[in-house]
Amino acid sequence: MKIYVPGDAAAKALGADDVARAVVTEAAARGVEVTVVRNGSRGMIWLEPLVEVVTEYGRMGFGPMSVADVPALFGDIEAHPKALGLTEELPWMKRQTRLTFARVGVVDPLSLKDYELHHGLKGLRRAIAMEPAAIVQEVTDSGLRGRGGAGFPTGIKWKTVHDAQAPQKYIVCNADEGDSATFADRMLMEGDPFTLIEGMAIAGLAVGATKGYVYTRSEYPDAVSQMQKAIEVARAGGVLGTSVLGSGRAFDMEVRVGAGAYVCGEETSLLNSLEGKRGVVRAKPPLPALEGFMARPTVVNNVISLASVPVIMDRGAAFYKNFGMGRSHGTMALQIAGNVRFGGLFETAFGLSLGEIVDDIGGGTASGRPVKAVQVGGPLGAWFPRELFDTPFTYEDFAAKGGLIGHAGLTIADDTVDMLKMARFAMEFCAIESCGKCTPCRIGAVRGVETLDRIGGGDASGIPLLTDLCETMKSGSLCALGGFTPYPVMSALTHFPDDFTATHKEAAE
Amino acid sequence: MPLDEAAVLSRVNEILAEHNGMEGPLLPILHAIQESFGHVPQAALPVIAQHLTLSRAEVHGVMSFYHDFREQPAGRHVLKLCRAEACQSMGADRMAEHAQRRFGIEWHETTKDGAVTLEPVFCLGLCACAPAAMVDGRLVGRLDEARIDALAEELR
Ligand SMILES: Cc1cc2nc3c(=O)[nH]c(=O)nc-3n(C[C@H](O)[C@H](O)[C@H](O)COP(=O)(O)O)c2cc1C
Ligand code: SF4
Ligand code: FES
Ligand code: FES
Fold first, then answer.
1. Pick from A461, A380, A481, A362: which is nearest to A423 by CA?
2. Strand A2-4 vs strand A35-37: parallel, antiparallel, or unpaired?
3. What single DSSP character describes residue A361?
């Protein structure tokens, strides 16, 4: 018998390790021979731990599983109370376009053999046979834009590094994923780490970099150890090392762990941190592409940007570019989180409306109360009211509505949320996490908290002050921490003015 | 129990040797030291500084920039509660208040018996099963009051 029990951190947080142990114990007690594979998560977090049993028809899903549900897996499984049917046939799975996450939840994350059986390494093999400039061109033609937040065209960044002359260049993967409501990087690193390794190796070949770093967070211990193990397997398998897949060209990489500073997700702060310095943001220019890690030309890309490269190289730029809408090409891994009935990761082409994502795919709130607001793009993203639910999920459409898609995390909140409190939190978070380099961010955020407290206390004269302060932060901050904190604050004020008036406060009490 | 300075220095020197040849080794070194001692002992700073040809102030500056590094040991267990938006939408503030009351401590404090230190954390990547917590590296999703009470019994 072959049974999949996810080893993904979210599955573990919901008891997957106990379930895995129970499967082994129960099998032994019954004298059944069982292979347990700790796969990634399929992304249906509300069904985790989602156990799968391999049957002659395919992989049958069961979830959410508890230890008590395990013995029945060894009986008539179709009658199991947690039976879901074939996992691949579930509506949530069938509606997706899984390109970057095609293997996550499917394969054994640390088996290179399994990886190759599922189209792994095809992109890298094709890249090896190409001229570096042609690889860069292919990525440019795919329309891929940075998935870390800023949406900068990946191929153009690569071209700058490709064209730079230097004795050493680097690929740095930004796996610092600090935004609330985001976990795509984590799920990919835990569930299919070879895809990131392959993407980074292709990037190395394309720009002439022989060394890569994955900078991730100390809050992600499982992802760290999984990446480290995968790198060792990849090295042993000849994917990494002095001759990548026998090409005669070198690429190797290692994992580095941050130390609990949100701002280190900003690329120049990240580079300082990687060099062992305070994670203070650097002024640009120079661009990291020209003077990045150790002042050498460096590609800094998000996990999902890099992990989308193998499928682009395997299926071709045109294949990837055909998905999406407008200038937002390809797919995005939506992370639907917070107060939501069906939370998880849903990969789809750009262009669904926010309402479809929240109400239809997410199924509304977990509390059963009405959705009041959705924050898109993490702590620097705007809050969207229901009136804006027709906004299509693309970079441009969200920008046009005073927001951003960022790393595509969505925090759903029901009607009990107090938007003044959320605005205050945004300012407080900025104050705590500011790197301290510029006054509007460092001091402005502290003033913002005070001003919001005044407004909360019933002093409406604080509102124009808050608006001015946000303007100053927007125009006077070096990076998007200070510069974009006004998004959640002003969107809360603009769309939910009632939460900022004293009458509302009294009514609520 | 105060750490024996000679023992600290010998372990620190081992760690420094293990990181020779690394590009940008300071964060990995600080992590390794904290892993060994539960905090970064003051005595380690000049040794690190000398080894990396930095000033002691520079090493201290780096250490103090990052929330993770502690100058003092934590309790025997560290309970981290997520305070970020997705967890808030599922009652993280209520969980934090409950935990603070149950353990009788505020953020960053340690219970009198030295058993538990309470730390805020901004996102554990468990935002679709919020509220989230981490207990000494073990993850907890859909945290509720009962679970906090159970942890209070368990963590000694
Ligand atoms: C405060 C702040 C935090 C950021 N955090 C992240 C992060 O965690 N992950 C990420 O990929 N990009 C983050 N970014 C964006 C990066 O600066 C950069 O745009 C990105 O790594 C580039 O990669 P991409 O082009 O593949 O998106 C952050 C930016 C700011 C200002
Ligand atoms: S905006 Fe804030 S975080 Fe960004 S560089 Fe300025 S002080 Fe640092
Ligand atoms: S850069 Fe120094 S205060 Fe703005
Ligand atoms: S917001 Fe709490 S785990 Fe992400």
1. A380
2. parallel
3. I
Q: Are A200 and A240 in contact (CB under 8 A)?
A: no
- CA gap A310, A315 in Å, rounded: 9
R_g (Cα) of chain A, nearest Å: 23
Mark the binding-site residues of B, compressed into ranges: 82, 87, 123, 127
- Residues A146 and A352: their CA atoms lie apart, in Å, by 19
β-strands A409-414, A371-376: how paired?
antiparallel
Whether the CB-CB separation of B12 and B35 falls below 8 Å is answered with no
One-letter amino acid at B99 equals A
Any idea what DSSP says for residue A183? -
Instruction: Name the E strands within A181-221.
Output: 211-216
Residue contact B125–A220, C-beta within 8 A: yes
The list of chain A residues with pLDDT below 50 reads 507, 509
Model pLDDT, residue A252 = 98
| A445 within ligand 2 shell (Cβ under 6 A) | no
Q: Are the CB atoms for A420 and A499 separated by under 8 Å?
A: yes
Minimum-distance CB partner of A219 among B27, B69, B124:
B124
Average pLDDT (B56-65) is 96
Is any Cβ of chain B less than 8 angstroms from the Cβ of A180? yes
**Structure tokens belonging to residue A239:** 């994917």
d(CA A497, CA A173): 40
B140 contacts in chain A (CB < 8 Å): 13
Cα-Cα-Cα-Cα dihedral sign, residues B93, B99, B102, B108:
negative
ipTM value of the model? Answer: 0.96
No. of helices (H) and no. of strands (E), chain A: 22, 16
Q: Which of B90, B138, B143 to mutate to test the interface with A (most CBs of A within 10 A)?
A: B90
pLDDT band at B2 (very low <50, low <70, confident <90, very high): low
- Dihedral sign from CA coordinates of A390, A393, A398, A400: negative
**Is B1 a residue whose pLDDT tops 80?**
no
Asked whether A370 and A344 are in contact (CB, 8 A), the reply is no
